[in-house]
């Protein structure tokens, strides 16, 4: 791949627009559920279905990403993914009824689930010499989109209607589709030129990385991502309820949830450089796990008195999320390895995450208290800590497979 500044400007803009919209179709839609439900005729019973669709879609499409890349190539795969997101968001804004709304949500989530995985190896392919800066950029933009979308949702819906509030996010993703199509065309021309030149005698790049699913690195990152996402989704779902049960008003619970969300932004600029600079970034995992433990203990012992402090601890503690994303590229040598590791980590990780909100809710209902749910969350922190020991060791995926190290795709 070319490494000139001009050749990488287009992929950088495409990565930025894609990252910005990795969560907008989800977080920008949730605040509108009551408004949309009143118009289309559905109630809270459908909210859980839509929420489950998100994590399930992220999981399934994460696992399907590597086979898709082998068939189409990395750039074409992400163009398809972002096109699905754009189509899903547009169709959702035009939905005449509940069935169309659910179907369009499935399409949008499919695109996001693929994009979640594919952005990471694309960063490695085009910006391997600037991993710290570009990793921080795309993770920060993901957090910005996640935080800004719900802030804009209701004001836009009041001013122009819920369909405009839902559909506006199809504009930046539509632009990203055009950019990725151009990038894919350039990549195809480069590949054809390389095939016609003297490089035809080179060893061909591998279509797959045999043995990757038997490596400690892959499974430790799956567990790290799974436990991190489980905690994030449990906090998003149940933090307001914990605070309300302790005597807080619902408005303050929502404000503290917004505080929890925005703390991911500074982490995006701090954690990726540390993950790449440190030979073994396990201290980051240890600090994050300790912060989450402090936050959970605080919510159990004094949920109302120190709510802000506990939420800050939790918001900083889930910085293992950007750490996981960064380690995919820091612990692989090739884009093939990055794609396989990213797909496995996010596919299985989000599958585990989908258990979190449901499990916490069931325990809360059956035990009539928060002790049992928090006990399970503490166990998840222990698993996260153990997985972090293995995932942060200075090792590379390609060196752990049984075959020799492979050339880049």
Question: N-to-C SSE series?
Answer: HHHHHHHHHHHHHHHHHHH
CATH superfamily of the largest domain: MFS general substrate transporter like domains
Might you state the CATH topology name of the largest domain? Answer: Growth Hormone, Chain: A
So what's the overall shape?
globular
Q: Radius of gyration over alpha carbons?
A: 21 Å
Approximate strand percentage: under 5%
| Average pLDDT rating | 85
This entry's quaternary arrangement is single chain
Number of strands: 0
CATH C-level name of the largest domain: Mainly Alpha
* CATH architecture descriptor name of the largest domain: Up-down Bundle
Number of domains: 2
GO molecular function: transmembrane transporter activity
Transmembrane segments: 44-65, 77-94, 100-123, 135-158, 164-183, 217-239, 251-270, 282-301, 307-328, 340-360, 372-392
Pfam families: MFS_1
Keywords: Membrane, Transmembrane, Transmembrane helix
List the helices and strands and how they pair.
Layout: H1 5-20, H2 24-27, H3 33-40, H4 45-72, H5 74-93, H6 98-127, H7 131-160, H8 162-167, H9 170-196, H10 216-245, H11 250-262, H12 264-277, H13 282-301, H14 307-317, H15 320-330, H16 335-353, H17 355-367, H18 371-391, H19 397-400
Helix pairs in contact: 1-6, 1-7, 1-9, 4-5, 4-6, 4-16, 5-6, 5-9, 6-7, 6-15, 6-16, 7-12, 7-15, 10-11, 10-15, 10-16, 10-17, 10-18, 11-14, 12-15, 13-14, 13-18, 15-16, 17-18
Walk me through what this model shows.
The protein is globular. The protein is mostly helical. The chain is built from 19 helices and no strands. The chain has helices at 5-20, 24-27, 33-40, 45-72, 74-93, 98-127, 131-160, 162-167, 170-196, 216-245, 250-262, 264-277, 282-301, 307-317, 320-330, 335-353, 355-367, 371-391, 397-400. The N and C termini lie close together (10 Å). The protein has two domains: 5-201, Growth Hormone, Chain: A, CATH 1.20.1250; 212-400, Up-down Bundle (Growth Hormone, Chain: A), CATH 1.20.1250.20. α4 runs antiparallel to α16 and α10 packs antiparallel against α15 (320-330). GO terms for molecular function: transmembrane transporter activity. This is CP family cyanate transporter-like MFS transporter. InterPro entries: MFS (IPR011701), MFS_Cyanate_Porter (IPR052524), MFS_dom (IPR020846), MFS_trans_sf (IPR036259). The chain crosses the membrane at residues 44-65, 77-94, 100-123, 135-158, 164-183, 217-239, 251-270, 282-301, 307-328, 340-360, 372-392. It is found in: Cell membrane.
């Amino acid at each position: 791949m070319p490494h000139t500044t001009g050749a990488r400007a287009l992929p950088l803009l495409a990565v930025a627009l894609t990252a910005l919209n990795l969560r907008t179709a989800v977080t920008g839609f949730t605040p509108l559920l009551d408004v949309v439900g009143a118009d289309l005729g559905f109630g809270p019973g459908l909210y859980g279905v839509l929420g489950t669709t998100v994590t399930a879609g992220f999981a399934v499409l994460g696992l399907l990403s590597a086979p898709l890349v082998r068939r189409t190539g990395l750039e074409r795969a992400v163009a398809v993914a972002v096109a699905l997101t754009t189509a899903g968001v547009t169709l959702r804004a035009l939905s005449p009824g509940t069935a169309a709304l659910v179907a369009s949500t499935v399409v949008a989530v499919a695109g996001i689930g693929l994009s979640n995985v594919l952005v990471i190896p694309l960063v490695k392919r085009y910006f391997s010499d600037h991993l710290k800066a570009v990793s921080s950029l795309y993770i920060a933009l993901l957090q910005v989109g996640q935080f800004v979308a719900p802030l804009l949702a209701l004001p836009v819906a009041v001013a122009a209607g819920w369909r405009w509030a839902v559909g506006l996010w199809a504009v930046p993703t539509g632009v990203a589709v055009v950019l990725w199509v151009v990038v894919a065309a350039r990549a195809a021309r480069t590949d054809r030129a390389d095939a016609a030149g003297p490089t035809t005698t080179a060893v061909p790049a591998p279509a797959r990385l045999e043995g990757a699913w038997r490596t400690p690195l892959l499974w430790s990152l799956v567990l790290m991502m799974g436990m991190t996402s489980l905690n994030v989704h449990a906090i998003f779902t149940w933090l307001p309820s914990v605070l309300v049960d302790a005597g807080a008003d619902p408005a303050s619970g929502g404000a503290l949830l917004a505080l929890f969300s925005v703390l991911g932004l500074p982490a995006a600029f701090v954690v990726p450089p540390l993950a790449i600079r440190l030979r073994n970034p396990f201290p980051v995992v240890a600090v994050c796990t300790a912060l989450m433990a402090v936050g959970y203990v605080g919510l159990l012992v004094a949920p109302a008195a120190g709510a802000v402090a506990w939420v800050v601890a939790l918001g900083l503690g889930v910085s293992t999320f950007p750490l996981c994303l960064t380690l995919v590229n820091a612990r692989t040598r090739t884009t093939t390895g990055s794609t396989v590791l990213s797909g496995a980590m996010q596919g299985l990780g989000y599958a585990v995450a989908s258990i979190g909100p449901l499990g916490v809710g069931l325990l809360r209902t059956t035990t009539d208290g928060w002790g049992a749910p928090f006990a399970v969350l503490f166990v998840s922190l222990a698993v996260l800590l153990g997985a972090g020991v293995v995932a942060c060791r200075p090792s590379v995926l390609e060196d752990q497979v049984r075959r020799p190290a492979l050339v880049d795709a």
